[in-house]
Design brief:
mainly alpha, 8 helices, flat
Length: 180
């Protein structure tokens, strides 16, 4: 039964993207949209957005590099780890939890390093994978996307984003403790 379910899911996932593409093109044809021209206009707009976000992207990547290189990340982990030990959060996972709101690529590098050290099927490997998928790069989003469109008042966005990240981290830890 589970083997058949796996086959059905595999076939459905193989057909999902072509189905969505055909659906979009079919809808455009039905609405008499010039599909190619609309695609080119969208690509042009995407390129313009990419040019606008480059300064913000460079700024956030430099700030993250300085944070890690200065030893501030290690210092922060040393302060917080006694508290996280009480809830069963390994120190290796704490590095990912602290880096994830700052940088997707930085946290992916840490996840990859943990996978190479402990293996993907270890508890910490599964935990950091779940954490990576359950949280967002909050400060990156605020700096790059909000900055590129000129949003200056981010007062409620920061606490909301960090609260969502905390919920994702706690949820990932609870699920992994239950399942693994």
């Amino acid at each position: 039964m589970s083997e058949m379910f796996g086959r059905v899911v595999g076939i459905a996932s193989d057909l999902a993207i072509p189905f969505v593409l055909i659906l979009i093109i079919g809808y455009g044809v039905a609405k008499r949209v010039k599909i190619y021209e609309a695609f080119v206009d969208g690509a042009k707009g995407g390129f313009e957005v990419a040019i606008k976000i480059i300064p913000f992207l460079v700024a956030i990547l430099v700030a993250i590099g300085m944070f890690r290189a200065s030893g501030a990340m290690d210092f922060l982990i040393a302060i917080i780890s006694p508290l996280t030990d009480l809830i069963g959060l390994p120190a290796e996972a704490l590095t990912v939890a602290l880096m994830r709101p700052l940088s997707g690529s930085g946290s992916l590098g840490l996840v990859t390093e943990i996978m190479q050290t402990h293996g993907p099927d270890s508890f910490v490997g599964r935990l950091v994978s779940t954490m990576y998928g359950s949280t967002e790069t909050t400060f990156y989003v605020l700096a790059v996307y909000f900055g590129s469109v000129g949003i200056k008042k981010t007062r409620h966005a920061v606490p909301a984003g960090l609260l969502a990240d905390a919920a994702g981290l706690i949820g990932a830890l609870l699920i992994c403790k239950l399942v693994f």
